[in-house]
Input
Amino acid sequence: MPWWGYVIVALVFTHLTIAAVTLYLHRHQAHRAVDFHPLVSHFFRLWLWLTTGMGTREWTAVHRKHHAAVETAEDPHSPYVHGIREVLWKGAELYRKNAQRADVLEQYGYGTPDDWLERKLYSGHDSLGIALMLGANVLLFGALGLTIWAVQMAWIPFFAAGVINGLGHWRGYRNFETTDGSTNIVPWGALIGGEELHNNHHAFGSSAKFSIKPWEFDLGWQYIRALSACGLATVRKLAPAAPAIDRAKLAVDFETLKAVAGNRLHVMADYGRMVVKRVHREELRKARSELRQVLKPLGRLMLRANERLDERERGALADALRTNHALEVVYRFRQRLHEIYEQRAVSRENLVLLLQEWCAQAEKTGIQALEDFAQTLRGYTPRPA
Output
């Protein structure tokens, strides 16, 4: 083949591995968001054994532990705990360290394959699969097969264990203010099969589709759609759609409560966009130059979940809010709305009353953005299935 032919082969092989990780290990095994035909599942298991040596139970257990203990000392690969350089360049080592722990496998590795192939071949013989892949590459492509194999061996440790677990919790944009540091690296999830949309995934962990916004693209979801059309995949769960807004609706009722309660992250994202960011821009524009530097970081800190604020940031937030009445009111109403969500032992009737009171008081603040959002909240209705 010409040189570019070998490049294409390497890209196809590595992309097959990426597809196997995101579709089979991640969306199917770890989160049960989609089911695959046994032929598809067995192909993915075989390919992963040949190209990564990773066991289904081990990968699933480590990933579930990551979600259960995200950004804490027990998180297997948080850049906030281990440092971004450690996760980016040594993510595979952090994975292996946890994959070898019997307690992690016992607690989080449930429901994974335990058939004859798993017991007799895949489990405990990870080096054999990698060696067979090396032999096949050299047999098919000669000396360049060794290069292709080396690229295959480095692809998942860097992009999945390093980039997603590292940069995906460090830098990027966020559609939803989750309690972890997850980010969407780019809005076009193609290179890593959709895993680039990591904040969306942490917001709706059991969704088979990672893209949320109209401009976002999840290649893994396109593969699931294609397999589903062929009868080889069954989608089990998707993220809830953002609630519809009925502008003619003037009162908070049970339909409002249903829409708001079932779409918490969407509603809080709307509040951040329609109220916090709008008022922050207005107050920055009006502020004197020396005060502007104090208010500038507020746009970021006011939106961040309390769990993600350290003591220094909490102090800076409190000090800055004392200098601006409008932003202090906006932040206080955001916290009150969050507290309504946290109510556990309150009847539906009382929750409706709490939302009605919140809207009534918001409209008395004299802050136009807050008044507009109160009207929007009244109009929230569940989107038809």
Summary: The CA atoms of residues 340 and 351 lie 7 Å apart. The first strand starts at residue 34 and ends at 36. The beta strands are 34-36, 188-189, 217-218, 233-235, 244-245, 380-381.
